[in-house]
Structures are given as C-alpha cells and as structure tokens.
Request: fold
Amino acid sequence: MSGASSFGGLLRFRTAVPRMAVGVAALLGAMSFLGAWWLIVALHVVAPIFLPSPATVARAFWTMCADGVAMPNALISISRVWSAFLLSAIIAVPLGILMSGYRIIGAFLEPLIDFIRYLPVPALVPLAIIWFGVGEETKIFLLWLGTFFQLVLMVAADMKRVPGEYFETAYTLGAKPRQTLGTVALPAMLPQLMDSMRISLGWCWTYVIIAEIVASDSGLGFVIWTARRFMKTDQVMAGVIMIGLIGLLTDQCLRLLHRFLFRYQSS
Amino acid sequence: MSNTLGNTGSMPDQAGAYLRFESVTKTFGAVPVVQEPFSLDIPAGQFVVFLGPSGCGKTTLMRMIGGLDTPSSGRILLQGQPVGGPDIRRGMVFQSYSSFPWLSVRKNVEFGMRFRRDMTKAQKRERAGYFLDLVGLSDFASSYPSRISGGMRQRVAIARTLAADPDVLLMDEPFGALDANLREDLQYELRKIQKKSGKTTIFVTHDVEEAVFLADRIIVFGSRPARVMADMDILSMVGPVRDETLRDSERFFHIRTDILHLLRGRLREAGQEGA
Reply:
C-alpha cells in the first residue's frame, strides 16, 4: 500500500525524488541497455559479426588495453584534443570578451563568425588537407575550426550576461571601464565561461575522431577505423566505448573542479 | 488637500545648494522620461527621497547624478561643478546584484577602496573593518554573499559604498526585494548611519511609508506625464528622530495618507484621461 503510493510519488510532475531512487534508476537504465543488447545477441537477431555480445566487446576492450594499443593512441587523441582546445580558448576568450565589451568589434566580427561556425567541419577536411597535408597541423586546424568560432560567440554571450549593475557599481567606486575587465567582468562571468569551455571541449572530441579517421595513422579514431577494415566489430565498439569513457571522466572532473572553484555560488 | 502637502517652500538656494539640478530633462531616443525641466537644490547632508510610481523618471534623475545617464538638456552641479561620468564621489547602491558574489563580505567592502591609490592595503583593511562593524556584519566578514540573507547583502553594499567615502550616496530602491520586517529594520539602521556619516543621500522608492520614515525631504513624482507633485519638508513635520513610535504615530499616519491620496488622485486623473 505504502509502497504503491511512494512509487506513485516518483512519477509526480516536476517533483524531486530521493537520492537513492536516482541512483537505482541510473543503474537500472544502464543495466536494461546492456540486457537488451545481450538479449538481441543471445536470440541471434543480429549476426555476431555485426553486433558482438557485451562480453566479447569487454574482452576486446581488455585486450586492447593489455597489448598496448589503446593507451598510446588514447594519449595521442587526448593531447590533440587539449592542444586544439587550448589554442581555441586562448584566442576565443579575450576576443569574445572584447566583442561584447566593445560593441563595434562585435558588429565587425559577428556576421563573419556566424557564417563560419555553420560550415560543417567534415566539409572543410579536403581544404585542410590541401593546405596542411596529412600531418599534425591538419588535425589541430580542424579541431580548432570546429570549436573556436562556437566558443567565441559563447564567451561573448557569457560576457553580455554579466549584470550591468556590477559594472555601474564599480564605476561609482572609481573604476575606469578598462579596469572592470579584470576586477568585475572576468570574475563575474568565470563560472559560465568554464561551462562554455567544458561544452566546447566535448565538441573537440567529436572532431578529433573525424580528423583521425580521415587523415591519420594514430589516435583512437585511427584504431577504430583500422578495426573496421578487418571487420573486427568488437574492437570498433570497444574503441567507441573508450572514447565515451574518456569524455565522461573528463567532464566529471571538470564539473568537480567547477564546484570546487565556484563554491561561493551555492548556499 | 491637507496642510502637510502645502508647498513647504523651496530649501535654501544658491549658497546652500550642495547638489543642484538645473532644468534637467531626459529623453531616451524618442521617449521622454523627464519631460518637464526638473530643478532642485539639495543642501549638504540632507536625506532626500524621490518618491513616485514606476515610469515617473525618479530613477533616471538619480542615475544622472551618478553619471550613469546624461541629461538631454540642463545640468547637474555638485558643489558648483557640473557632474560628468561616474566616479568615486557619487556612490550607488542597487536593488539587485548589489554585492559581488565571488568576493567575501570583507572583500566586497574593501572593493569600495579598490581603485584608491592613496591608501595602503592595511589602511583599506582597517577601514573595511570599521564599516563592517557599522552595519553589524563583522561576524560574517569571511562569508560569501550567497550564504547570508538578502538584507545582509544590502548592508554589504551600503558598507562598501560608505567605505569609498563618496560625497553623495545614491540608493535605487535598495530594500525593494526584502520582506516587510527586514525592510523596517534596515530603514531604521540606514537613517542612523546616514545621520552619523552626514552623507548627502538620494533614495529612490515607490513605498510611501519608507519615504516618510527615512526622509528629511520628499520629492513626490507623478507619472503620465512625469512631473513633480510636491516637495515636502518632512524634517520640520516629524523631526529628526525616527523610530518605531514614529511609525505608530498619528502624524506619521496622516502624512502617509496625504501622500497616498495625492498619488491616487493623480492616478485617477490619468485613468480618466486614458478612458
């Protein structure tokens, strides 16, 4: 009776549920996915060469880690992602702040950036290869292209969202407009800014795989693509899962860092 | 209208004017915000409340003192000098986003002296301590604004502005977002602090009771069209002492009622014109 009513409570619209229920639900979600996967394979709905069982994929994952294929290639991908991302951020953050701080700079750059950011990165791969060959520059360039223009606009929006009262307060305390950049704008927008960067880091992961599939002889994208050529579906899936895990881990670490750095926000 | 609203005569002019509006108007684009030229002389140390409904231009007039908006015509003089852009001589306290969430209470107050070069770090710290004490927040010096109440956050902003030592204190409905009890407490404290510091203060509100409790003088604004309806010498009506007995007194009640009638009459007229 009471059980029924508390289960009903879990389905109440826009209402918080106990922490315990959240954990159980997450676990059930993951397990039902694995269960469905396993069931499809066990019932021979799809041939194993197209869809290997979860256990086979797990074994492939383990083998890839053990025989020294996964880690070096993962590190290569990670370093590509981070160098391109940092290169983006170093230019995008000051530029975005300037675009919003000085509206004329924004008016000058925004239409151009809006145009470029709608160009799909894969469409630019041929151009990148013509310009840079198939070396490391091509990959960094593609990743940078995919994130920079998005990030600039997000930074500009983060800056625009800083309440005018903060600036005006600083002015009436004797600050010159330029002085408010470091003392007001940056600290006020920092939590949002870090979220924007975290999101664009995620896009970097998307593009690094594309870049490595098209023009590379290393990295996780290359590993997956090579496995595909030999129809080693279990390795392809293991590689994909590894990318997902790295992304998840990075994201969680950055969220933790966010919570730590901006603990003044929560009550 | 009752006698409390009778024109109390203008305050001492010329020599006594510390802050002066000279035929100030303001138009944003094609929209007139302060249409009728506004003139006013404010002597040093006076607590002036701009009272009126939203859209009457009271906030704009105050922002122009702060240099955050510029008059379309006319000028504003502080000690005989026309005011320019915002600077440390005219401090402002807002209703929302008044304290910086990324700084501790103490750092917020020290921010008032952040851009002063004539003080050492130790001097700034000491002065911040004094004003924290004045607004009763010494025990919360190391807390962040998100951990303290809305009323405390407004006190942080007041302490920060006072620490900057401006000539004029500008307040834009600073207690507007607080609940009634807290509001009354803060009004009481603000009045005391203002008298103690002797800062010429312009306080904007639409709350009649708040205005009467705080003010030496109230400028009552009406909207549609925006204009000054009364210039009331509250100091000579109720005296300098402001406490809870005043709030319960008949005199306080009468002044409040008269102003309300004045404002409502205005609103009724505007309604009839509109119909």
In short: The interface with chain B takes residues 163, 165-166, 168-176, 179, 183-184, 187-188, 190, 262, 264-267 of chain A (CB under 8 Å). Residues 167 and 173 of chain A are 10 Å apart (CA to CA). Chain A has two domains: 2-45, 62-261. DSSP finds eleven helices and no strands in chain A.
